[in-house]
Amino acid sequence: MARAIREVKERLKLVDIVFELVDARIPISSKNPMISEVIKDKPHLLLLTKADLADPEATKDWIKYYSDRGEQAIAIDSRSPFIEKDILKATKKQLANKIASREQRGISQTEIRAMCIGIPNVGKSTLLNHLVNKKVAITGDRPGVTKKQQWLKSPHGLSLLDTPGILWPRFDDQSIGSKLAFTGAIKENLFAADDVALFGLNIFTKRYKQRLLDRYKVTEEDLEQPLPELLLAITAKLGMNDDYDRASQRIMLDARKGKLGRFSLDFVSEMSENDD
Ligand SMILES: Nc1nc2c(ncn2[C@@H]2O[C@H](COP(=O)(O)OP(=O)(O)OP(=O)(O)O)[C@@H](O)[C@H]2O)c(=O)[nH]1
Fold this sequence. Notes:
One of its GO terms (biological process) is translation. InterPro entries: G_CP_dom, GTP-bd, GTP-bd_ortho_bundle_sf, GTP-bd_ribosome_bgen, GTPase_MTG1, P-loop_NTPase. Residues 2-169 form the CP-type G domain. Pfam families: MMR_HSR1 (PF01926). The protein is an alpha/beta fold. It folds into two domains: 2-169, P-loop containing nucleotide triphosphate hydrolases (Rossmann fold, 3-Layer(aba) Sandwich); 174-256, Orthogonal Bundle (Conserved Hypothetical Protein Ylqf, Chain: A, domain 2). The chain contains twelve helices and six strands. It has helices at 2-12, 35-39, 56-68, 83-94, 96-104, 124-131, 174-183, 193-207, 209-216, 220-224, 227-237, 244-256; strands at residues 17-23, 44-49, 73-75, 112-118, 151-153, 158-166. Strands 3-2-1-4-6-5 form a six-stranded mixed β-sheet, sandwiched between helices. Helix 3 links the parallel strand 2 (44-49) and strand 3. Helix 7 (174-183) packs across helix 8 (193-207), helix 8 crosses helix 9 and helix 8 crosses helix 12. The structure holds guanosine-5'-triphosphate. Guanosine-5'-triphosphate binds at residues 49-50, 52-53, 77-79, 118, 120-126, 139-141, 143-146, 166.
């Protein structure tokens, strides 16, 4: 981690602004806690990626949460070709002083230099590809794929450093680990599948229970049972006999593929005052 931080700090000197990517479903859990310290006063835009998979209400709450704290956050689907306009607008807002100062000094430079930073699998390569309108970086479903380094130019004046800063998430807290695993940000084999599925089921029974009823055809009574019983009921409904490990994998896969609808696992209402 120390080396990754050193490298990010070096690259920060080259850019006007940092695009920090977090997963909209888990904006807190997918944030490396040291990022703010590393970025310091560098202008910075928080991009809530995979917003197409997240609970829109929760995302709205997060945007307001950050805005109330003077931080600009926008929700994006990194795969959308139409995101550059939003990002450029927000970037210019962040850099208004710098742009005005350049103009005053007669500097005609309009190029804005930026770098992406975020934990693995949060959508850095996908975002870069869409901003520069071509396939420029390796993308993959598994963490740790981005390796290349080059400057990339978007058609509208953004110059992006294609060595995204990759900082690993901290998951010494079990619930953060479960959230990262459930959404696919870290390899699921770091955790027992049934533990992660039970964690997800716990949130779904509280917030999205209709999704479980619809997808797995379990009953209201099943939802009232202790979570391991519910998992067994789902396992049976999936025709997987007692293979609750396989059923757990299926539940996680369903969630990641959007088959359980749009959901979030981090919520503003759960933030304590100490988290600010
Ligand atoms: N639904 C959805 N999927 C996304 C979005 N952004 C990225 N993905 C998917 O998430 C997976 C990971 O995306 P990458 O762009 O490879 O993520 P990365 O941050 O570059 O990952 P590393 O190279 O591991 O650091 C890919 O399967 C993408 O298609 C998004 O906004 N919405």
